[in-house]
Amino acid sequence: MEKQEKLKHHNMELEMLIRESNHRIKNNLNLLLRFISLEKRFNKNNPEKIIENTVGRIESFSLLHEKIYNVDNFKDINVEEYLNSLISGLYSIFGDDGSINYNSNNNELILNSEILVPLSLIITELVINSIKYGYVDYELDNKAINVSVDKFDNKLILHYSDNGKGLPKDFNPHKSIGLGWRIINSLISQLEGEYEVFNDDGMHFKLTFNI
Prior knowledge:
Elements: H1 2-42, H2 47-68, E1 77-78, H3 79-93, E2 100-104, E3 110-111, H4 113-134, E4 143-152, E5 155-162, H5 179-191, E6 194-199, E7 203-210
Parallel strand pairs: 2-4
Antiparallel strand pairs: 1-3, 4-5, 5-7, 6-7
Helix pairs in contact: 1-2, 2-3, 2-4, 3-4, 4-5
């Protein structure tokens, strides 16, 4: 009887995880469809750009699901390991020649997928922006992207920076007509977070939100 009860409990947990997994996959696919729809609207005359940006976002979702299925639940995803793989994949997709160094300092932080999905999509948009625009017509011997995610009590803080040419002086991320910043603003609203972006030997971005 005791073994039967344990087996029954185990099966219930497994069914719950499967339902949760299916729910998250459905949500992520719907989010991806929204991104594709936005790409079509913003870049309707540039199909190559639509494909390239969509591939980058699919890479982010694909890697996250791969990490999810390698753990016993949805709460034990190593942030540093995940971001290392994600940014390496984005480098290859967007044709960087490997000249941009990536530095991470995430202190073996563990997060669940509910937080990591929007967070990784924000980082994806920032990396795409740095690779495609941050170093255009800007000569620099040692290009670098830095990412750190820190947890303090119930707050999560993301620091992101590159050492490229920075943003235009009159740039306002809240009024940007670019798709990337619109996606970032939408995801931050989803997290109910606050952020600031500024230039200091490159572009700096800081996001804070409650978890």
